[in-house]
Amino acid sequence: MTEESKPVTDRMDTLFRIQDASPSPGAILGKEKPTLLLHACCGPCATACVERMAFDYSVTVFYYNPNIMDAEEYFLRKENLEKFLRAFNSEYEGRTYVNYIEGRYDPERFIRRVQNLRDEPEGGRRCTVCFEMRLAETSRMAKKLNMDYWTTTMTVSPHKNYRLITETGQALAESSGTNYLDVDFKKKNGFGRSVELSKKYGLYRQRFCGCEYARYAK
Fold first, then answer.
1. Is 2 a member of any domain?
2. Does residue 58 belong to any structural domain of this protein?
3. DSSP code at position 23
4. Domains in the chain: how many in total?
5. Which letter does DSSP use for residue 6 in this model?
6. What is the value of pTM for the model shown?
7. pLDDT for 122 beyond 80
8. Residue at 68 is within a domain
9. Is residue 63 one of the residues assigned to a domain?
10. Domain range for residue 189?
11. What does 102-166 look like in DSSP terms, one character per residue?
């Protein structure tokens, strides 16, 4: 059975075993850095965020996005994120290293949470639920992995509500006993840099956030 043909949960468990068995990047490079779990929605958004954080933190990218209802789209984004991370780690070998783990892909859970909000406009209550789901799982995983901090690449997008994301992240951190790192990745030309880096690494850039309701909204 190939890696791509394995059930999603099996692939996820394999990634966790790789992560748990690996020494910390700080130990590999001879310099301890604070650990950061970075939730990533896709490869393009991750580019500028990883570039900004990977030299000051020991970064583990966490791909968890049950809002991407189309499985083909989900795996296309996942593959492009992994493509970027392989290239980044190769380019900066000896200077830094970025780990990667994947959460459970469960779009049915997302659909159950938002089915009564399908007619909400983009940026409305459906998006609030979507942010909360992904950030809550990132907070839970940060606690499980004993990360010093956690945050998300979603703030690099000019289409996302930075204030809502930050307030949600801070509330979840307080309730879980974790530390949310407040970074507005749009600043310092973050979005523009993500476009540049996506071209550099030849990444697929999607034209919608993830859920089918937004994809086909009029």
1. no
2. yes
3. P
4. 1
5. S
6. 0.84
7. no
8. yes
9. yes
10. 8-215
11. E----HHHHHHHHGGGTTSPTTSHHHHHHHHHHHHHHHHHHHHTT-SEEEEGGGG-TTS-HHHHH
Write down how long the chain is: 218
Say if residues 44 and 187 touch (Cβ distance below 8 Å).
Answer: no
Torsion sign (Cα): 204, 208, 212, 218: negative
pLDDT number for residue 215:
60
Cα(113)–Cα(45) distance, integer angstroms: 25
User: Residue 133: which CATH number?
Assistant: 3.40.50.620
> Residue 100 to residues 14, 146, 178: CA-CA distances in angstroms?
11, 15, 20
Catalogue the E-assigned strands of 25-86. Answer: 35-40, 58-63
Say how far apart CA 193 and CA 173 lie, in whole Å.
Answer: 28
User: For 203-216, what is each residue's pLDDT tens digit?
Assistant: 988 776 767 666 66
User: CB atoms < 10 A from the CB of 130, how many?
Assistant: 22
7 has a pLDDT exceeding 80: no
Angle at 182 between CA 179 and CA 188, to 5 degrees: 150
Residue-wise pLDDT tens digits, 21-77: 344 444 444 458 999 999 999 999 999 999 999 999 999 999 999 999 899 999 999
SS3 180: strand
Give CA–CA dist 189/124, Å, rounded: 26
d(CA 68, CA 33): 32
